[in-house]
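User: I'll paste a sequence; please echo it back and then give the predicted structure.

Assistant: Echoing your sequence first, then the prediction.
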Amino acid sequence: MPRVAVMTDSNSGITQLDGKNMGVGVMPMPFTIDGKIYYEDVSLSREEFFQMMADDKNILSSQPAPADLLEMWDKALEKNDQIVYIPMSSGLSGSCQNARMLANDYHGKVYVVNNQRISVTQKRSVQDALQMAANGMDAARIREVLERERFDSSIYIMLDTLKYLKKGGRITPAAAAIGTLMRIKPVLQIKGERLDAFSKARTLNQGKTTMINAIRHDIENLYGENNVWMYAVHAQVPDEFAVFRKEVRDAFPGYEVEDDRLSLSICCHIGPGALAIACAKKSSKL
């Protein structure tokens, strides 16, 4: 049975400490803030990130340097035969494609998974990969399973502000101004490879109901009842989240709902104050 290391990037929301406890290597994602490079959970804490956002710093997400990725892989291969590397969705960043190109030089030792996930659903894929490796699967088979099941997840996110969509060019300044005036709270969707508009809400409660109904639809029509992992998630809004997490649990009695936080790579583009609900179908191989 090959010794298989499971690795990911911090877009999964897995911290360096969590990674050590799980036995997972975590590549810290770089952010360029006012021209200076910071590394998530290494030289940039979550609290510092949101403070810089509040201070209206210019924050740009970036990709890992090839040298950093190669160093992480080389170190892992000193004690393992193969690596399964699970980066963020290829539809949201070029880091997956770059990693695949780099893996070609490892001749079957490094398997990069185009998992089409990010944040809590990406983390779920990492957890599934760990279990598959413990069950004796080799890296090629783990990648095959994860890529076959990559679209079996959903995330719905309600934004608190349109500021960062405007800043990133996803909506026009005029649309942002009108939306802000009308107090519109967009609900976005991540299902597969992209972050897309899903709905618009005029109130907080309407937005939460929209997300809960959307997840319920996906469970009933796509994934199967009592066959999913469920998550209540937020972006630095603990008070509202305390209420929301209870509402999610009340809406889905009998489900175990995990609490988590949106990864900084998502927060960079949507801003603070977001609430989200997510689910991932349980793997058929576990």
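The domain at 153-281 is CATH 3.30.1180.10 (Hypothetical Protein Tm841; Chain: A;domain 3). The radius of gyration is 19 Å.
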